[in-house]
Amino acid sequence: MTTLLSDPNPLFARLPKGPPDPQWWQTIQGIFRPLEYSEAARKRYGDIFTFRFLNAYYVVVCDPQGIQKIFTADPDLFDSGKANAAFFQPSLGENSLVLLDGKRHQRQRKLLMPPFHGERMRTYGRLICEIAEQTVDRWQIGEPFVMRDATQDISLRVILRAVFGLAEGDRLQQLRHTLTQMLEVTASPLRASLLFVPALQRDLGAWSPWGRFLRLRQQVDDLIYAEIADRRQQEPGEDILSLMMSARDEDGKPMTDVELRDELMTLLFAGHETTATALAWAFYWIHHQPEVGEKLLRELDGVGADADPVEVARLPYLHAVCCETLRICPVVLFTFARMLKAPFEVMGYQLEPGTVLLPSIYLTHRREDLYPEPEKFKPERFLERKYSAYEFIPFGGGDRLCIGYAFAQYEMKLVLATAMQCVRLQLANRRPVVPVRRGLTMSPSGGVRMVAIDRRQ
Question: Fewer CB in 10 Å around end: N or C, the chain?
């Protein structure tokens, strides 16, 4: 059996050491047991090691100084889009911000940045609270429900309203239904293999997994292009799609319909699936450790139910709870990969072009020197210490920092605050909840079953 230790590729000889298992076994472990496998590798090889996934070499880094070196390097040293294309292009399209490099990446980022900052956040805040209240009102006292289903409904409605400006109507309902079905195609560890293994991406008809995925994607595309066409005939609104359509680059050019479609898909997938999962984790930890929920509720009672959303989002303990959730259970395990185009030195290794750098969010967040007792949920650590952008990295960093990170944190805080002020909740059972793969993310097993006890006055 050929192992990675005897790999004939000359590039491998100059890489940090890593697990000696065959590449097919490392690939299986990366899909089905990524936490255990990466933790074992870190324990054996240290803060930088080589991992082989499919036919690529990934140099995993979980040292803050090494991560700083990567995040602050000249972006032109990397082919980041190329490094991530295999995983993201089938869903997002080749014009997605995630898959662009160089000037095209800078152009799209500049066009997309304004809607996620400034005064518009106040408008989004009222929308988030309204949608969260509507969802909470539907929870029946004493009847268990799956929290992740509820948070997915909230986050999808928020993103469709904020991004598309869609109120209730046929197109919104169709988009919600079809997007949810599309995500379910890769919702289990086994089905997630479709996103990682190109050989499985074969259209064998509507009943085959990839065939179903492609047909659902086409339905979503049809709905998005129809909405874009309608918008071109209307006055611009306040939603993100309107702002994207009116944005112009330095040459005065707007985005094409295909570019708009790909960026909308990026926002829909990156902005809704990840936030839904993070919220489910937050509800779990708050109620797994009731003292956290009690302390949070006391803070919320201090501002009242009618407080300005912006003021609520500034509450220190609420902020700490959200940060600790993203630390202990990061939704994605790694930042965006970066493929070297030129030689690059990091942590004493001179790496050659073609090497892919992969900063590990999960392993960095589990460092005992940064986060004592890392297995414990302790929001207070974020009140006692300010972490650098290379120590706490739930949204990546550098020129690949998630463009919607402020919106995601804002939504997380307001949904939690709204629910906590409206209803008393408890876990439906005491079964341990652990991270399991759901597509490209790590989601709570079972979705976190909860039950509403009573309404708050």
Answer: C
Would you say 359 and 347 are in contact if contact means Cβ atoms under 8 Å apart? no
For 141-160, the pLDDT digits (tens) are 999 999 999 999 999 989 88
Q: Residue 1 has what pLDDT?
A: 26
Q: Report which residue type is found at 187.
A: A
**Tokens of residue 295, six digits:** 């302390």
Neighbours of 287 (CB within 10 A): 18
User: Rounded distance, CA 159 to CA 241, Å?
Assistant: 11
DSSP 147-185: HHHHHHHHHHHHHIIIII---SSHHHHHHHHHHHHHHHT
Classify domain 62-455 at the CATH topology level.
Answer: Cytochrome p450 (1.10.630)
CA distance 385 to 197: 41
SS3 299: helix
What is the CA 318 to chain-centroid distance, rounded?
20
Q: Which helix (H) or strand (E) holds 35?
A: helix 34-45
Q: Which residue shows structure tokens 């992740």? A: 148
Domain residue limits, the chain: 62-455
**pLDDT tens column, 303-362:** 877 888 989 999 999 999 999 999 999 999 999 999 999 999 999 999 999 999 999 999
Q: What is the structure's pLDDT at 221? A: 92
The C-alpha atoms of residue 27 and residue 21 are separated, in whole angstroms, by 10
Q: Which of 74-83, 251-260, 427-436 has the lowest mean pLDDT?
A: 251-260
Distance from C-alpha of 274 to C-alpha of 331, rounded to nearest angstrom? 6
Joined together, the tokens standing for residue 375 give: 């297995």
* Residue-wise pLDDT tens digits, 161-190: 877 777 667 888 888 899 889 888 888 888
Question: Hey, how many other C-beta atoms are within 10 angstroms of the C-beta on 323?
Answer: 19
Q: How far apart are CA 349 and CA 341, in angstroms?
A: 16
Of 207, 213, 245, nearest to 114 by C-alpha is: 245
Check: CB of residue 384 under 8 Å from CB of residue 413: no
What integer pLDDT is reported at residue 78 of this predicted model? Answer: 94
**Strand blocks (E) in 47-151:** 48-53, 56-61, 145-146
Q: Report the predicted TM-score, pTM, of the whole model to 2 decimal places.
A: 0.92
